[in-house]
């Protein structure tokens, strides 16, 4: 296992190009199962989760080629509908295999995903939706078995206690595009990654109306054909680098962003007096961390899109830890998603957790320390906090980071950070956690 070593106190300066979105790539890979023709997917981020999804598709029988690190050609000519535990357990997003397997084969047997550190990851809404599409559902021995032999379109409501479900919406869309009749999905998730999936499905011949809204109308077709599709840029990676720029006191430009995907973060920047500029068509955004304008403490509540994304909550905790005053960050999507807080506290952050709220009292500085990554976005928060901290920070278990950020340390080096990836053996033993 590798570790990341950071020498803090150096501002980030420069431009970083954002990769394709992990959370679009994963359901889009699953969607290639809906046709026997070849789908060529470009601007695919080079991440362990994506490579893993490619392995799963191979296991299901698809031909999977990778002409270059960011381009995949997937042909699911002859596939089987069983995704075993040893494959699924490592990545929750493999639950998105359910929809396309039911749509294409009228049957799916997928191991139930485990939970993860950010909280329980139920799929009751996925199963409720499939039942509404006239599927038979059985759960036994840790597998969900879906009989879609009488699949047909219907009305379904996808709202849950925490709003809609992103992968649940993806699953319902992928089951409905080949289901006879009309499917109307109420309280659909409208995250940009769901929109990107719909855009690709339409290229494949699917009939989907009201894309981007909470109400989708899908007319089932008999067959879908192959397509070429370019993954939407990753708004979460873009946000992570912008917050890192503000935290480090440097000027960072992110390019290859999509206008409108960053509005909730830019609104938070405005409230917190973080200076930034978006160029006319919004595809480049620059944060001016070098302007020593005093940041203001704020309140943030994570919500389904277009609200503030839960995937940037940990990164904002780090920024507010170095912002004077009292900020309150409320996590409405995953109420326990605060694994980054004890690690930030080790760096001197003054954060108290009260239920689903992080009460963050800004401090003058953070001090580098050995910290432990726990999940994908928490790791990113620890890395950017290390950039701003005084002294040396070691981040362990950075395989979490590699799931969602393509060579983050290289991109940060190119922005001037003193950061390196080392084998764990090079970490002083007295610094290692258990
Ligand atoms: C997707 O997860 C993302 N992952 C997550 O990103 C992201 O945090 C999340 O959406 C919210 O935006 C992928 O797209 C691969 P949900 P997903 O179903 O689809 C509850 C990252 O860091 N719920 O929208 O699993 C659920 O417990 C990852 O990139 C039910 O109650 O999230 C949660 O509280 C982390 N029943 C809320 O809804 C269900 O059947 C949102 O979950 C499904 C979900």
- Could you name the ranges where pLDDT drops below 50 across 5 or more consecutive residues? none
Which ions and ligands are bound to the chains? ligand EPZ
Number of domains: 2
- Summed up, the helix count is 14
Order of strands across the biggest sheet?
Answer: 22-23-1-24
Architecture per CATH nomenclature, i.e. the level-2 architecture of the largest domain? Alpha-beta prism
Total beta-strand segments: 24
Basic shape: globular
How does this model look, in words?
The protein is an alpha/beta fold and 434 residues long. The protein folds into 2 domains: 2-19 and 233-431, Enolpyruvate transferase domain (UDP-n-acetylglucosamine1-carboxyvinyl-transferase, Chain, Alpha-beta prism), CATH 3.65.10.10; 22-230, Alpha-beta prism (UDP-n-acetylglucosamine1-carboxyvinyl-transferase, Chain), CATH 3.65.10. It is 30% helix and 25% strand. The protein has a 4-stranded mixed β-sheet with strand order 22-23-1-24, covered by helices on one side. A 4-stranded mixed β-sheet has the order 2-15-17-16, covered by helices on one side. It has a 4-stranded mixed β-sheet with strand order 4-5-3-14, with helices on one face. Helix 10 links the parallel strand 18 and strand 19. Helix 1 (22-31) packs parallel to helix 2 (48-59), helix 1 (22-31) runs parallel beside helix 7 (192-203) and helix 4 packs parallel to helix 6 (166-176). The longest helix has 14 residues, at 235-248. The mean pLDDT is 95. Residues 22-23, 26, 93, 120-126, 160-162, 165-168, 189, 310-311, 333-334, 376-377, 404 line the site of ligand EPZ.
